[in-house]
Fold this sequence. Notes:
By secondary structure, the chain is mainly alpha-helical. 69% of the residues lie in helices and 0% in strands. It is flat. It holds the Pfam family MerR_1.
Amino acid sequence: MKLINQLSKETGIPIPTIRFYEKSGLFTGKKKEDVKSNNYTYYDEEVIKKLSLIRDAKSAGFTLSEIKEIIDAWYGKQISKPEKLEILSRKLVQIETKIKELKEVKIQIAFLKNEVEKCN
């Protein structure tokens, strides 16, 4: 179990961002019931995995609501196996589409770069 400052150091995600993700329902920390002297929240290894997924998915262009859908599908116990498979399959299709779009942009940028180099 880690405190939020340890979580931030380990993941490279700022503390305010971690708090925002938690308030957004992407994960929850735990309070130690036997400790009454502080109000610390503790985070387990599953939260670190979720934060890694959030960071990677955000850098790939997914919105927080899309990321929440993925996390709920993978970790959620209230969603049936067929529903999980449907959500994850849909996300894979979206990723493939995004990859194709990025490849097209890459080709266009490479062309423009080549054109600029010819001008000299």
